[in-house]
């Protein structure tokens, strides 16, 4: 199979096929051949041998984009089918509605504004709390509160949209 | 000896106490909140009872419920661990009245030493040096100005009921004092329910050195050497070690004697810690006393060879200390890292959630006290400590090397942790030379913010394009994900083990 691999900010073309023995793979990275012997010692934990060099690789696919722990590094990656035409590039300007997103998982402690209020950029909009630490979420721009999606006591995940500023 | 002990805590310390009880042949009762039903301390206990909803105020701080569970299930003692009810004199007194032994000091000693202003008065009576400043709560900003003028700026405002860095303000000039007074007082009111603050001289670039003491109920008290806890962020300890690189025999003896004097004068029993600041000229100043087992007690256990929780239980059961001061010798060096669910690269934001991957370190000289496992959901309701990783070796240099090795073995996936921060600190030349004080970590973080640098040691390749092994591994994960699902696509080691076992069963010739 063939795909584009976005890894550590770079894009590589990767082709991979199983070799003769189980766990052995023929990989081409931008056309360059690599023979890999990959063995899962348990789910998500790979022992990878490349020409005798041993690597411990741990897959962390908890967030939307998976990441690899290798040595002391944590490297996020994303694989894309090259035939896919959809663009992932999202532009987040400050025109139009802008979400206020949870910076961490937690619980909503206070909502400091109401729908329809005008707010200034960097004005605190909500307070969330986790692990004895409170965190103020600020308005990303000057504008008006178009929507508040949570109330005090609600549990939120990191990245959830809690309010919208227009 | 006790037959059954209730452990009024959660997380790693609940598990650590539970293990000690089991080693001493004592049955254990765990308590848990709704967030902790699947916690390890519940899994490992002999009995476990629900307290209530996740917030600590409705569960682990409910002394009434905990005493009731102890009574109903015939526990003869309660170990409070640290945090929660451990320094609550009212709870200790309620236990005394219920005839259930509180494993800690008597409530009377907690009242003397638990308030920082009372403790400063006790320090004066015990003839131990303390920072200049007042020994009673300040009545007004005007009084604060008078005290500050008498001792000279800079000064530190502190909450009398304080701890954990709350209600503290450093003040450099008189004009800043009134507003700092108001801020510290209201912060203290919110955090501790008491707005009382006092003031002391700010010691510049101090080291935090603390003395572990143990006192039995027969008037014997010993000190078990010091711990250095100068690596702090926002007044919270990050790394602790024993012994301190700058404390010699003579200073250790003098600090130990002062700590023992204070404990004896207050009628203190069981384990306790006397905290000091140490200045550049090796002058030490009493800071406060913690009337409980400390988070960082394992480093003392490793260098003294004693199990502090065993000794706590034996002392509470009325046994005399099994050794004298001259029997206590320090051997080797121990370092502890507090592994937190927080993201140093993102303003140390908390990072609760599910641990999707866990590879824990082991091997010589490594001890890990933790209450986590792969699949555990770290609750958002409690403090973010996941684990205490402790390295022990003959020398400080070797303990650092051992800790770095263990950190490299350690992988926690699914949530963010401060593992990288410890790699950064333990490689820093200043830390390695033990040139540390309580402002050290803030300076390090200001000069090289976490996340902004690739952690490289001398022998590592320079940062560059993503390494081929990472690309190859991503490719294999991707290829197998599409076909058979992750776990089944690659030959798993269980089949290897089966084959090996089969070979061995057949005669081992292969």
Number of helices of chain A: 0
What about the largest sheet of chain B?
8 strands, antiparallel
β-sheet strand percentage of chain A: over 45%
Q: Kindly state the number of beta strands of chain B.
A: 22
Structural class of chain B: alpha+beta
* Mean pLDDT, all residues of chain A: 86
Q: Note the total helix count of chain B.
A: 18
Q: Mind telling me which CATH architecture of the largest domain in chain A this is? A: 2-Layer Sandwich
The CATH architecture assignment of one domain in chain B turns out to be 3-Layer(aba) Sandwich
Strand content range of chain B: 15-25%
CATH topology of one domain in chain B, by name, is Rossmann fold
Domains of chain A (count)? 2
Largest interface: A-B, 59 and 50 residues
The average pLDDT of chain B is 91
The percentage helix of chain A is: under 10%
Q: Shape of chain A, please?
A: elongated
Work out the number of β strands of chain A.
16
Give descriptors for this structure.
heterodimer, A: 166 residues, mainly beta, Glycoprotein, Type 4 Pilin, OB fold (Dihydrolipoamide Acetyltransferase, E2P), eight-stranded antiparallel barrel, 16 strands, 58% strand, B: 510 residues, alpha+beta, Rossmann fold, Dna Ligase, domain 1, eight-stranded antiparallel sheet, 18 helices, disordered C terminus
Give a quick summary of the entry:
The complex is a heterodimer of chains A (166) and B (510). Chain A is mainly beta and 166 residues long.
Characterization of the model:
The complex is a heterodimer of chains A (166) and B (510). In chain A, a hairpin with a 2-residue loop joins strand 1 and strand 2. Chain A has strands spanning 2-7, 10-18, 24-29, 32-42, 45-50, 53-60, 67-70, 73-80, 98-101, 106-111, 118-119, 124-130, 133-138, 143-148, 155-156, 161-165. Chain A has two domains: 2-80, Glycoprotein, Type 4 Pilin; 98-165, RNA polymerase II/Efflux pump adaptor protein, barrel-sandwich hybrid domain (OB fold (Dihydrolipoamide Acetyltransferase, E2P), Beta Barrel). Chain A is an all-beta fold and 166 residues long. Chain A contains no helices and 16 strands. The model of chain A is unreliable at 85-93 (pLDDT under 50). In chain A, the strands form three sheets. Chain A has an eight-stranded antiparallel beta barrel. A four-stranded antiparallel β-sheet of chain A has the order 9-16-14-11, with no helix packed on it. Chain B is an alpha+beta fold and 510 residues long. Among the domains of chain B are: 4-103, 3-Layer(aba) Sandwich (Rossmann fold); 132-201, Dna Ligase, domain 1 (2-Layer Sandwich); 468-506, no CATH class. Helix content of chain B is 36%, strand content 23%. In chain B, the strands form six sheets. An eight-stranded antiparallel β-sheet of chain B has the order 13-12-9-10-11-14-21-19, sandwiched between helices. In chain B, strands 3-2-1-4-5 form a five-stranded parallel β-sheet. In chain B, strands 7-6-8 form a three-stranded antiparallel β-sheet, with helices on one face. In chain B, a hairpin with a 5-residue loop joins strand 9 (207-215) and strand 10 (221-233). At the A-B interface, strand 1, strand 2, strand 3, strand 4 and strand 5 of A face strand 15, strand 16, strand 17, helix 16 and helix 17 of B.
């Amino acid at each position: 199979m063939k795909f584009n691999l976005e890894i550590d900010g770079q894009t590589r073309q990767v082709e991979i096929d199983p070799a003769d023995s189980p766990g052995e793979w023929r990989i081409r990275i931008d056309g360059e051949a690599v023979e890999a012997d990959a063995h899962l010692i348990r789910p998500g934990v790979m022992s990878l041998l490349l020409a005798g060099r041993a690597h411990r690789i741990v897959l962390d696919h908890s967030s939307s984009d998976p990441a690899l722990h290798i040595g002391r590094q944590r490297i996020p990656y994303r694989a894309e089918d090259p035939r896919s035409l959809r663009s992932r590039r999202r532009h987040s300007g400050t025109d139009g509605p802008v979400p206020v997103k949870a910076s961490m998982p937690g619980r909503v402690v206070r909502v400091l504004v109401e729908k329809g209020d005008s707010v200034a950029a960097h004005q605190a909009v909500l307070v969330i709390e986790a692990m004895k630490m409170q965190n103020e979420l600020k308005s990303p721009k000057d504008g008006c509160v178009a929507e508040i999606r949570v109330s005090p006591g609600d549990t939120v995940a990191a990245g959830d949209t809690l309010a919208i500023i227009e | 000896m006790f037959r059954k002990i209730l452990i009024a805590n959660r997380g790693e310390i609940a598990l650590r106490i539970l293990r000690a009880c089991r080693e001493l042949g004592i049955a254990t009762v765990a308590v848990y909140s709704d967030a902790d039903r699947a916690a390890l301390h519940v899994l490992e206990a002999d009995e476990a009872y629900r307290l209530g909803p996740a917030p600590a105020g409705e569960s682990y701080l409910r002394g009434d419920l905990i005493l009731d569970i102890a009574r109903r299930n015939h526990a003869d003692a309660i170990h409070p661990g640290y945090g929660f009810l451990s320094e609550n004199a009212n709870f200790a007194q309620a236990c005394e009245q219920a005839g259930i032994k509180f494993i800690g000091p008597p409530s009377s000693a907690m009242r003397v030493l638990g308030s920082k202003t009372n403790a400063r008065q006790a320090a004066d009576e015990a003839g131990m040096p303390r920072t200049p400043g007042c020994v009673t709560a300040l009545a007004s900003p005007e009084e604060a100005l008078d005290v500050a003028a008498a001792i000279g700026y800079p000064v530190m405002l502190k909450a009398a009921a304080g701890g954990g860095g709350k209600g503290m303000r450093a003040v450099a000039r008189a004009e800043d004092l009134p507003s700092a007074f108001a801020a510290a007082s209201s912060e203290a009111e919110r955090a501790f329910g008491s707005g009382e603050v006092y003031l002391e001289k700010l010691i510049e670039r101090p080291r935090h050195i603390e003395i572990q003491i143990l006192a039995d109920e027969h008037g014997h008290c010993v000190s078990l050497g010091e711990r250095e806890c100068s690596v702090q962020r926002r007044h919270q300890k990050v790394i602790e070690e024993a012994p301190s690189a700058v404390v010699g025999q003579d200073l250790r003896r003098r600090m130990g004697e002062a700590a023992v004097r204070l404990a004896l004068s207050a009628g203190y029993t069981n384990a306790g810690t006397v905290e000091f600041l140490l200045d550049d000229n090796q002058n030490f100043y009493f800071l406060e006393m913690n009337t409980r087992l400390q988070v960082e007690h394992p480093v003392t256990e490793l260098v003294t060879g004693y199990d502090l929780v065993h000794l706590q239980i034996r002392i509470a059961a009325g046994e005399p200390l099994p050794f004298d001061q001259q029997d206590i010798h320090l051997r080797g060096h121990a370092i502890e890292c507090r592994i937190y669910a927080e993201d140093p690269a993102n303003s140390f934001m908390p990072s609760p959630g599910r641990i999707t991957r866990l590879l824990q370190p082991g091997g010589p000289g490594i001890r890990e006290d933790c209450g986590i496992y792969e699949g555990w959901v770290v609750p958002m309701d409690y403090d973010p400590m996941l684990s205490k990783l402790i390295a022990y070796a003959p020398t400080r240099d070797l303990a650092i090397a051992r800790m770095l090795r263990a950190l490299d073995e350690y992988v926690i996936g699914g949530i963010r942790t401060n593992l990288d921060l410890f790699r950064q600190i333990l490689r820093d030349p200043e830390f390695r030379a033990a040139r540390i004080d309580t402002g050290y970590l803030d300076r390090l973080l200001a000069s090289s913010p976490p996340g902004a640098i690739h952690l490289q040691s001398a022998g590592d390749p320079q940062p560059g394009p993503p390494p081929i092994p990472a690309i190859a591994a991503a490719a294999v994960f991707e290829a197998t994900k599409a076909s058979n699902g992750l776990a089944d696509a690659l030959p798993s080691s269980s089949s290897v083990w089966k084959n090996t076992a089969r070979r061995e069963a057949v005669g081992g010739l292969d």
